[in-house]
């Protein structure tokens, strides 16, 4: 599942940062001098986008000498990516590669910690992430959460059926919509039907319909735990997911409620990974 971004994406990243060459390296006259660039961890890190960082360096004219794969978990002080080449190549690729590594590895590291905490409580739990990544960064965000051990909740609007109250408002409300779920299933037989509930009462109504998954939004762990018991009693086969405000500090509490799926966005927001870069003449 851990894929690599296309070369067209890599070219775009480089063009954003080096549209007309590196003026500093050109003016001080070091462009042709041979050198080496080495990336290393400064903290516990789950790596992501090492493959893309390596392609940035190669496209800028450097030759790769070492690269650990995305998803690798490292302690501080480990060298994981290195390349040799002329100074102009190293300086052109330096910050583009570093930005990719720090932002993507930050997401991957947060994801890994959350998945570990959730599965320590409930090994069967699925941790999935929303499509609330910053616009233009979805490919990187999805790669990062996958490297951290999660999966995407939905990649976009085109491949999932997830019904919110913003949908049912156009259909006369939730109860009126639930009467139509059997017909909806006939239209999309290969696709699971997920319906979001804003309360435990709504969740029970959904559980008695033909939905595959009921998703409870912004409900406290205590209330959720009670709701899970009632939902299982009404429909033992329906899957239960929880979403809304779940982060590293609360994920264990939610995992202990007996739900099947945790849906979160918090992994996208936080500090980048702290990655060191050393550049030296050869």
List unreliable stretches of 5+ residues: none
Q: What is the CATH T-level topology of the largest domain?
A: TIM Barrel
Coarse structural class? alpha/beta
Shape: elongated
At the fourth CATH level, what is the homologous superfamily of the largest domain? Answer: Aldolase class I
Salient structural properties:
282 residues, 41% helix, alpha/beta, Aldehyde Oxidoreductase, domain 3, 2 domains, 4-stranded antiparallel β-sheet, 11 helices, 7-stranded parallel β-sheet
In words, what does this structure look like?
Helix 1 crosses helix 3 (50-59), helix 3 (50-59) runs antiparallel to helix 4 and helix 9 (200-207) runs parallel beside helix 10 (221-234). This protein has 2 domains: 7-113 and 271-281, Aldehyde Oxidoreductase, domain 3 (Alpha-Beta Complex); 122-268, Aldolase class I (TIM Barrel, Alpha-Beta Barrel), CATH 3.20.20. With 282 residues, the chain is of the alpha/beta class. It contains 11 helices and 13 strands. 41% of the residues lie in helices and 21% in strands. It has helices at 7-17, 23-28, 50-59, 87-121, 138-147, 165-168, 174-178, 181-187, 200-207, 221-234, 251-255; strands spanning 34-41, 45-46, 63-67, 73-74, 79-86, 126-129, 151-152, 161-163, 193-197, 213-217, 239-243, 261-264, 275-281. The strands form 3 sheets. The protein has a 7-stranded parallel sheet. The chain is elongated. Helix 10 (221-234) links the parallel strand 10 (213-217) and strand 11.
């Amino acid at each position: 599942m851990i894929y690599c971004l296309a070369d067209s994406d890599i070219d775009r990243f480089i063009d954003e940062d080096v549209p007309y060459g590196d003026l500093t390296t050109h003016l001080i006259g070091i462009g042709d001098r041979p050198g080496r660039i080495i990336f290393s961890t400064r903290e516990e890190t789950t790596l992501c986008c090492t493959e893309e960082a390596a392609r940035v360096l190669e496209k800028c004219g450097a030759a790769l000498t070492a690269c650990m794969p995305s998803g690798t978990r490292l302690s501080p002080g480990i060298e994981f990516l290195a390349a040799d080449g002329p100074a102009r190549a190293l300086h052109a690729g330096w910050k583009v590669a570093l930005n990719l590594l720090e932002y993507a590895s930050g997401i991957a590291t947060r994801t890994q910690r959350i998945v570990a905490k959730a599965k320590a409580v409930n090994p069967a739990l699925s941790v999935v992430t929303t499509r609330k990544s910053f616009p233009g960064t979805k490919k990187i965000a999805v790669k990062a959460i996958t490297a951290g051990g999660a999966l995407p909740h939905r990649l976009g609007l085109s491949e999932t059926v997830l019904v919110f109250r913003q949908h049912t408002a156009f259909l006369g409300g939730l109860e009126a919509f639930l009467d139509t779920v059997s017909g909806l299933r006939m239209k999309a037989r290969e696709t699971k039907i997920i319906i979001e509930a804003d309360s435990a009462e709504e969740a029970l109504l959904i559980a008695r319909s033909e939905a595959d998954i009921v998703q409870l939004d912004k409900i406290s762990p205590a209330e959720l735990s009670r709701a899970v018991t009632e939902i299982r009693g009404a429909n033992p086969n329906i899957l239960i997911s929880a979403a809304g405000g779940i982060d590293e500090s609360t994920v264990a509490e939610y995992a202990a409620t007996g739900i099947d799926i945790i849906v979160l966005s918090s992994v996208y927001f936080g500090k980048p990974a702290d990655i060191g870069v050393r550049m030296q003449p050869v």
